[in-house]
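Give me structure tokens for this 310-residue protein.
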Amino acid sequence: MSTSPFLAGGTPDQPRLIFADWMHAVQAHIESTLARLLPPAEAIPARLHEAMRYASLGGGKRVRPLLAFAAGELTGAAPERVEIVASAVELIHAYSLVHDDLPCMDDDVLRRGRPTCHVEYDEPTALLVGDSLQALAFELLARSALSDPGRQLEMLRLLAHASGSCGMAGGQAIDLGAVGHALNTPELELMHALKTGALIRAAVRLGALCGEPLSDKAEAALDRFAKRAGLLFQVVDDILDCTASTATLGKTAGKDAAAEKPTYVSLMGLERAREFADDLRTQALAALAIFGERGQRLIELTDFITHRKF
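Here you go.
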């Protein structure tokens, strides 16, 4: 079992960090890991590499890496393995934000409190940034010694599936097609299970795969948690879009409503959406009961996702 501050359950020599300190430690570690793994800004083609670093560094909640590290705690995963899968997932997430912000998609000018990548650079560069970040994510998984060959191949398959037409990209396609149209609850849940939930689910599974195998029962429970946590994240996002300010969010507030996008708030109303978020939190925590104290970080992250302000 690792004694890393990111994964430790607490020992006499290394007491367990309180959640806020653990979260900040993981966030800082992922920031430095990404800075090391991304191409240097001065390497040719310098403008592209500079823009890749701009899009990936210097902001974000890093929820997906946090989930990967917390899931790794369940299986005694080595931190040097978890940091690779966590970085790969975060690079996919960063690429998706760059492409989502493009004029042909959501056409946004603000991300993480800064100009979006295509505004800071230009649209062709932003397109190439997304392409390059996605390629780097899979390169990291392929070149690193993470597990036995069979399990490492499964990691690559999981991330590819979560990123493609049956995952994140497919969810975005449904989202674009739904503008101005009313979706019912199952349709909205499917859209977000793909667009947001698939990558969150992959982060949890990849983090766990870096350590010892789980029983079939424990694997099923962890996947139930990941599905509920992914949907919870999106419901809270919808609530914040209509209740928080642009300054707080670091992106344009109220944009979903202005663009007539279907959200849980537009479908249910604000209060019912808040109740639904509470229900999802309860379901996510119930799924973690099988893990006892080993699931504490995931419990704490569930509460962070539920009560976050940005």
